[in-house]
Amino acid sequence: MVGPLSPDSVGLVEPRSFRHEQPLALDCGRELPGFDLKYETYGSLNAARSNAILVCHALSGDHHAAGWNAPDDKRPGWWDNCIGPGKPIDTDKFFVVACNNLGGCAGSTGPNSINPATGRLWGPDFPIVTVRDWVRSQALLADHLGIERFAAVAGGSLGGMQALQWTIEFPGRVRSALLIAAAPRLSAQNIAFNEVARKAIMSDPDFHEGRYAEQGVVPRRGLMLARMLGHITYLSDGLMRQKFGRELREGKLNFGFDVEFQIESYLRHQGETFVDRFDANTYLLMTKALDYFDPAAEYDGDLARALARAQARFLVVAFSSDWRFAPERSRELVKALHTGGSAVSYAAIDSPDGHDAFLLPNEHYFGVLRAFLNRVHAELEVAA
């Protein structure tokens, strides 16, 4: 059974909104005069308020990580295969919190919110936010929920970077951290991909210097190209060869520039559907947050020194075919954590699915997550 009535689903979930009225100082030197965070929760918080897990989303994710918002939804939350009763992040054991980051386009304060200073949409005037800004805002949400310490903070890709930042920023508030398909900072190649994606968006005639909403238009072509480029980096060459090869849509060459190969059709579909659910200014903000993330920068490039503050136990997971955040980047994290004195478990998962593997079911991968979190839960039970 698939749907909100499935026994391993968290069922129908209603998003909530947390309002913080006080200004939030940002790394860029500006401040937000209060903000909203959209979030969802799954499972029950125990009496000791010790069993909470924060799930952090990646670039195009949001607060809807599991379950269904309506019975007729076409699909559940973005990590539904991993969160629920009996699943690796087991909601029979844990209270799971997922929120939409600042600058997002799914209900949290961002470019499509009203700037109280002008009465207009923030648009391109929304300040640049960093991973550390997100973590600080998430900590305020945790305060609101009465959670002093998370049993775990978990995330894949950009979500894993947030989990890592949590252990540095609030070392006493994180019991364990799951860093999945992540890296301590972006490579020059990854920054280059992000810049090309941003340039595609900003070069669209309908971008209007980021004020497209006021013009009643959307920079569809630019955002579609950005998503197509990004999606190529999320897949592996082997997976694309396996799924599409050089297969032609019509079984013959048409000697033109319309879609002929199945991979072309797939990428265009991904781009077109993305435009209907995501905001261009948010895409610019999220990729900049990725580019700027570098916790070692404040420690003369010494990652081990940066991570020496952490008190959490770590699980670092990498995927064999992930060339965007390759396994060697995860091993770099493991080495620095070991040097800094942290307890670390490392799992290298054999998968053909590229960077997107962290979103997909895999027996070995899910087994590793389940075993690690079962240990966390057992320790909570002993402490109780």
TrEMBL record:
Positions that bind substrate: R227, D356
Keywords, comma-separated and alphabetical: Acyltransferase, Amino-acid biosynthesis, Cytoplasm, Methionine biosynthesis, Transferase
Site (Important for acyl-CoA specificity): R324
E.C. code: 2.3.1.46
GO cellular component: cytoplasm
Main location: cytoplasm
GO biological process, one term: methionine biosynthetic process
Catalytic reaction annotation: L-homoserine + succinyl-CoA = O-succinyl-L-homoserine + CoA
Pathway: Amino-acid biosynthesis; L-methionine biosynthesis via de novo pathway; O-succinyl-L-homoserine from L-homoserine: step 1/1
Active site: S157, D322, H355
Domain AB hydrolase-1: start-end pairs: 52-336
Top EC class of this enzyme: transferase
GO MF, any single term: homoserine O-acetyltransferase activity
Localization, UniProt: Cytoplasm
InterPro entries: AB_hydrolase_1, AB_hydrolase_fold, HAT_MetX-like
Membership in a protein family: Belongs to the AB hydrolase superfamily. MetX family.
Function: Transfers a succinyl group from succinyl-CoA to L-homoserine, forming succinyl-L-homoserine.
Subunit-level organization: Homodimer.
HAMAP family: MetX_acyltransf (MF_00296)
Protein name: Homoserine O-succinyltransferase
Species per Swiss-Prot/TrEMBL record: Immundisolibacter cernigliae
